[in-house]
Amino acid sequence: MDSEMRPADLKEKMPPGQDPAGPYFDQIRQLASDAGQLEHLYRGAAAAGEAEAFRQAIKASRVAAPGNLLYDAWFHRLEYSAAQVKQAVIAWGWLIPLALFNGFLFWLLSDEDRFMLDLIGPTLRQSQQWLPVLMLLAAPISASTVMIYLTAAGRRGWRRPVIISTLLILLGFYVVGVYPQAGTRPLQEQYLTLMMLHIPLLAWSGVGALLLFDERDAHSRFAFIMKSLDVFIVGGFSVGAGGLFLGITFGLFNALGVEFATWMQRLLVAGGAGLLPVIGVAVIYRPDRPVANQSFDEGLSKLVALLMRLLLPLTLLVLTVYLAFIPFNFREPFDNRDVLIIYNGLLFAVAGLLVGATPVRLADLPAHLHRWLRLALSAVAGLTLLVGLYALTAIIYRTTVDQLTPNRLAFIGWNVINLSLLGYLMQGQLRANST
After folding, report:
1. Within this chain, do residues 211 and 345 fall inside the same structural domain, yes or no?
2. Which of 25, 53, 101, 270 is an S-S bond match for 106, by CB 3.0 to 4.6 Å?
3. Is 275 inside a domain boundary?
4. Mean pLDDT (whole number) for 105-118
5. Looking at the predicted structure, is the pLDDT value of residue 223 above 80?
6. C-alpha dist (Å) from residue 234 to 164, 242, 281, 319, 382
7. If DSSP codes are grouped into helix, strand and coil, which group holds residue 177?
8. Contact 182, 409 (CB under 8 A)
C-alpha cells in the first residue's frame, strides 16, 4: 500500500454490519502520535477484558498506516504478548468430567439390545430394527454438555443454557416418540434419516443462540460460523485418528486370538466418540472471550482459511468445465436420483468453501488481495447458483410426475434456502464491486 488509508476507506471495504477491528479502531487512529494516551487506552481495554479487540484494532491500524512507527511498536509488543499466552485457557476441572459424562451417555445409548428404533410394519413380524437411539440423541446430548462447559468455564448465567438444553433434549425424544406416525416403513425410514441430519443442525444452532444472545451483530455471527468450522475440522481429524487407533488396537488383539466383549467395544467406539465434541470445543474455543474476539489469524484457523482460498480457483475451474458438459447430459438429474443427491451435496460444500475463504477481519488479508478474493467468491457463487437452479428444476419435475415425499420436500427446501443465500451473496458482492 503506497499511501495511508483513511479509516473511512477501510470501513467502506467491509461487508455491511462489520467493523474493521472492533470499537477501538477509530480511537487508535486518532491517537496515532500520542504514545501516552494510547497506553492509557490499552490499559482500559485490558481492564474491560477487551485486550484482543485492541490487538486487532492495532493490527488494522498498522495495515491502514504502514509507515507509523508507533503502530509498529505496539503491533510487535502485542504479538509477543499473545505468543506468551498462546496456550488456550482450558478449564480442565470442567472439561474432564463433562467429556467422560458425555462418553458414558454415548456408551449407554449404544446398547442395541435396549435402545434401538424399529421400523413399524402392519404386524409385529414385519417390523425390523433399523436405527440406534443414539443417532438421534447424540447431538442434543453433546450440545447440552458443551453448553455446560462454556457456561461454567466462561462464568455465564445458567438460565439460558438450561432452557436451550431442555428444548433440544425434548426435541430428540419427540422424534423418537412420533416417528411411527410418519406412515409406512419407507416413510418412517425417510423421516428418521432426515431427523438424523437436521437435529445436529438444530443442536449447533442452540449453541450459537447461547453464545450470540448478547452479540447479535453480523460480525459476531460470522465469527461463530468460522469457529464452528474449526471445531468440525478438528472433530474430523480426531475421528480419523481415533478410527486408526481402534483399528490397530482391535487388529493387534485379534492377531493374538483375543476378542473384546461387546460392551468393551461399545465403550471404545461409542464412548470414545462421546469425548470428542467437548474436547474439540475446549481446544478451539476460549469461553472467557466473546465470539468476535476469538483468535482467527493463527494455528488451525489460519490454515483452514488458506486452504479454502487455494481451493477457490480449482472449484471455479471444475464448475466451469462441468457447466460446459451439462447440455450433453441434460436429462441426467431428471432421471437419476443419485445425481440430485450429488448436486445438493455440492451446494453445501460450496457454502462451506465460501464461508471458510472469507476473512473474519479485513486486516487478516493483504489489501491487494481484497478485490481478487471478492471476484473469486462472486464467480464461484454465480456458477453454483446456475447448477443449483438446474437441480431445483429437476427435483420439481420429478415431484410433479411422481409424488411429494419427505425427502423431496427436504431437498426442495434446502435448495431454496441455499439458492436464496447465494443470490443474496451475489447481490452484496455486486453492490460492493460497484462502489
Report:
1. no
2. 270
3. yes
4. 92
5. yes
6. 25, 12, 9, 28, 30
7. helix
8. no
Q: Which residues of 406-415 are buried (b: 16+ CB within 10 A; e: fewer)?
A: bbbebbeebb
Range of the domain at 238: 92-293
* Spatial contact of 426 and 375, defined as CB atoms under 8 Å apart: no
Residues 237 and 97 reside in one and the same domain: yes
Same domain, 312 and 405: yes
Tally the C-alpha atoms within 13 A of residue 151's C-alpha that lie toward its C-beta.
Answer: 21
Residue 14's pLDDT is what?
41
What secondary structure does DSSP assign to 66-126, as a single string? TT-HHHHHHHHHHHHHHHHT-S----HHHHHHHHHHHHHHHHHHT-TTTSEEEE--SSGGG
Q: State whether 253 and 390 are in the same domain.
A: no
Model pTM score = 0.76
Q: Which residue is it, cell 432452557?
A: 163
Segment 331-362, tens digit of pLDDT: 888 988 888 888 888 888 888 899 888 888 77
Structural domain includes residue 1: no
Average pLDDT over residues 30-40: 85
Q: Identify whether residues 389 and 273 lie together within a single domain.
A: no
Q: Is 129 helix (H, G, I), strand (E, B) or coil?
A: strand
What residues contact 128, with CB distance under 8 A and at least 6 apart?
A: 118, 119, 121, 185
- Which tens digits make up the pLDDT trace of 206-220? 999 999 998 888 889
Beta carbons of 293 and 45 less than 8 angstroms apart: no
Question: Is residue 213 domain-shared with residue 117, that is, in the same domain?
Answer: yes
Query: 340 in helix, strand or coil?
Result: helix
d(CA 345, CA 341): 6
Confidence at residue 394, expressed as pLDDT on a 0 to 100 scale: 92
The pLDDT-based confidence of 140 (bands split at 50, 70, 90) is: very high
On whether the CB atoms of residues 18 and 223 are closer than 8 A, the answer is no
pLDDT of residue 20: 47
What would the pLDDT profile of 42-70 be if each residue is shown by its tens digit?
Answer: 888 887 777 878 888 888 888 888 888 88
CB neighbours of 264 closer than 8 A, spacing ≥ 6?
A: none
State the helix-helix crossing angle for 299-325 and 370-401, rounded to 10 degrees. Answer: 50
